[in-house]
Amino acid sequence: MSPRVLVTNDDGIDAAGIRALAGALRAAGFDTVVAAPNIDASGTSAALNATEEDGRVVIEERDLGYAIAGSPAYITLLGLHGAFGPAPDLVVSGINRGANAGRAVLHSGTVGAALTASAAGCRAMAVSLDILSPAAATTASGGAVMTLSKEDEERRNWGTAAATAVDLVDALLAAPEAVVLNVNVPDLPADRLRGLRRAGLAAFGQVQMTVVETGQGFVRTALEESGERLVPGTDLAALAEGYATVTALRALSEVDLPGI
């Protein structure tokens, strides 16, 4: 029997990436259900929030699946508790609009959904497409920020990332429990992808927040490229070389603290 897969994301159910991912999983024969935020929920990490009306979480059925007024992690928990039919065997989150690499994965709603699934005992994968390139970046307040028109988003190589995710399902099924595969794929046609590499997390994210202006009662921020040196063996370095990357993460772990 084919594994049942819950597909979610943080860019919202109307994003091109989630359509490509769900389509590829269904074409590969997986029993796939889609449940995702009804609006963009980027940067929500593993937050658990939702909009309720009379004590009920608002859910709308769409052609692709379920659109929910809630965060990706919350939606994932709903799915694991049978809100969208039988509980899934796997959760696959993405395809995110932009890489989720380095230690900045802490803040990602895409990764947060996958980590939430794994903490609940379900194997999970987060998938992202690296669209931060000269063609996809504009400068604002001295830094590069991702801005995509609808037409530009549709032209991106979502199929490359979707195929990479499908190819990694067997590895995910064979992975230890409570492990998340964090997958990042360059925005390249499949025939230009140099391959797949296991990689560690870079010590920084692809972009960083800066404070542009402060004043009486307000603060204004912007995102800009980090400008840090790429370290060989890390996810950001491999992405820059044209490789897709996979990094195994754990949602929660404990360490011994001497003296306590």
UniProtKB/TrEMBL annotation:
Pfam families: SurE. InterPro entries: SurE, SurE-like_Pase/nucleotidase, SurE-like_sf. Keywords: Hydrolase, Metal-binding. It comes from the Bacteria. Residues 5-198 form the Survival protein SurE-like phosphatase/nucleotidase domain. Its EC number is 3.1.3.5. Gene3D superfamilies: Survival protein SurE-like phosphatase/nucleotidase (3.40.1210.10). It catalyses: a ribonucleoside 5'-phosphate + H2O = a ribonucleoside + phosphate. Belongs to the SurE nucleotidase family. This is 5'-nucleotidase. It comes from Asanoa siamensis.
